[in-house]
Amino acid sequence: MASKNNEKGEEAHKDTDGGETPDWAGGLRQLYDSVVDEPLPDSFMDLLAQLDESDTDEGKKA
User: Fold this and answer.
1) What are the boundaries of the region Disordered (predicted)?
2) Alpha carbon distance 10, 22 (integer Å)
3) Average pLDDT in the 39-47 region?
């Protein structure tokens, strides 16, 4: 990737589509990916299971 300084003096890199990506964007992407990869808490999984059961019960009534 080629790099150059932008108007604020920050180093930027060429993106795959020809746009410029600031240096901090890579760190932000890593942080986002790490949050997405975290498993769901058990309490949230329990809540989703309860909602699924509720939907199934309502489907039987209709």
Assistant:
1) 1-26
2) 7
3) 96
